[in-house]
Amino acid sequence: MALPLDPLGELMSEVKLQIRKDGPILVTGPCEMFDADGNVLTPLREGAVALCRCGASATKPFCDGFHRRVEFSDSPREAAAESGS
Ligand code: FES
User: Which of 52, 58, 70, 73 is buried deepest, with most CB atoms within 10 A?
Assistant: First the structure.
């Protein structure tokens, strides 16, 4: 199966980002990741990469599952109600 082309005739990426409810961003497909200094980031596991969205991971930028312990919510309303603002 040929990859689709963008309007300029270049191959479109196979990379997909999926935002998980109250959890990380899952990245699937071939891609390279770099830190702020340009160093290559190596995922902890092969396959899908989970990027932390909650800020509580000890392995940032990767998710280590800690979002469950901190009960991370991606709903602005729920987060505001919990903080009392
Ligand atoms: S999103 Fe999983 S540890 Fe932050």
Answer: 52
Residues in the ligand 1 pocket, defined by CB under 6 Å = 23-24, 52-54, 56-57, 63-67
Please report the sign of the dihedral spanned by the C-alpha atoms of residue 29, residue 32, residue 35, residue 39: positive
Expressed in angstroms and rounded, the spacing between residue 21 Cα and the centre of ligand 1 is 11
Residue 79: strand, helix, or coil: helix
Rounded CA separation 17/49 (Å): 10
Atom of ligand 1 nearest to the CA of 54: 4
Pick the CATH number of 18-83 from 3.30.1490, 2.115.10, 3.40.5, 3.90.220: 3.40.5
pLDDT in tens, 6-28: 666 766 678 899 999 999 999 99
Lowest mean pLDDT among 15-24, 25-34, 43-52, 60-69: 43-52
Ordered by start, the domain boundaries in the chain are 18-83
